[in-house]
Specification:
This protein is of the alpha/beta class and 384 residues long. The chain is built from 12 helices and 15 strands. 38% of the residues lie in helices and 21% in strands. It has an 8-stranded parallel beta barrel with strand order 3-4-6-7-8-9-10-11, surrounded by 6 helices. Strands 1, 2, 12, 13, 14 and 15 form a 6-stranded antiparallel beta sheet that branches. Helix 5 packs parallel to helix 7. The structure holds zinc ion. The site of zinc ion has 6 residues, from helix 6.
Amino acid sequence: MKMQMQLLDATVSTPIPPARIPDAPHVFSMSCKVTAVNGDLATPDGRDKAIAWWRKYGFTKLWLESYRHGEHAPTERLVEERDAFRAAGFEVCGLITPTMLNDPAPGASEPQMTTCWSDPRARERMRAEVARAAWVFDTVILDDFLFSPCGDGCPRCVADKAARGIADLGEYRRELMFEVCERDILPAAKAANPKAHFIIKYPCWYRNYAARGYSPARQADLFGECWIGTETRDANPEPLQACWIMAWMDALTDGKCGGGWYDALDCKPEKFVEQAYYTILGGARESLVHCYDYVLAADPGRTPFGEKAETPGACREAFEREAPKLRELAEFLRGAERGPFAMGADGVSTHEFRKNGGRYIARLNTADRPVAGLPPHGFELKGR
Ligand SMILES: [Zn+2]
């Protein structure tokens, strides 16, 4: 058995302590991209269909996106949908994906996907989107596209880096991203809505945080809350990461990790559901399915970097099958103490919990074959 501690990269060796899972109902939530907000969800009929599905499968909270990839959801539409979903009993928050905020490069038909933050025009556009979202929603989450690969190949970044007297590219990106958060995002949000609470979401590729501009401990202090991506997808060789990264981020940010976010991109249905189990087993207070567009819509919308939602219908069906067990697990974990967990060489992970004086073992088979009494991708929770 390989203990979870050994899975951590030496450069990010924040320990994962045992922890008590909050004794509060676990929140199942779903994000809706601009494509859905401007499409299916823009009509009462479309909303009714979505509401029926969300209710049936235990979702109580929505995150409506106002901006992504240069596409906007009009403010009046956001207000209309916010109010309609609230009237139906849902908690409704906002979402911004900070992509395509620069001008297109000369000769290019559209802006680059990730943002060059040394560009004052990109920061101006970001402030405008932040203000708009904060005007509609008290709570807004930022998709993990704050990161930037811009630097050595960009004359503006090269000059800015030199002017700041910073030699290291990662340090420059961290400095710049923090400045965008501190001087652009949060002031623009507070000016539009004094009650605005913005959340920074981190991707699950934790090994590259520092090089791409993220400084979670410092940023979580600034925002007051962060979230973690548990979107391990098919290609990640550490499936258990979707479980331990929640506790790891919570420890790194002094308890400020508010939830886990996974998606249906580049994953088979079994992997989609595995991410759901691990997000809950990791102790998340809220698990967010990204997104309506990938799981429930006919049109998944545009996905960056060639990522694909190839089996949306199959992911939805797999989730529907597992939903009762996921809810049962989340309910059981309320107030439980999370003990050790580990991935076995056979692909079955084992998770120990203590509750009401009892000891319980959860097991999840990540393999495509039956292992140790569990069917392929099977889950069980047993008292001992
Ligand atoms: Zn640049």
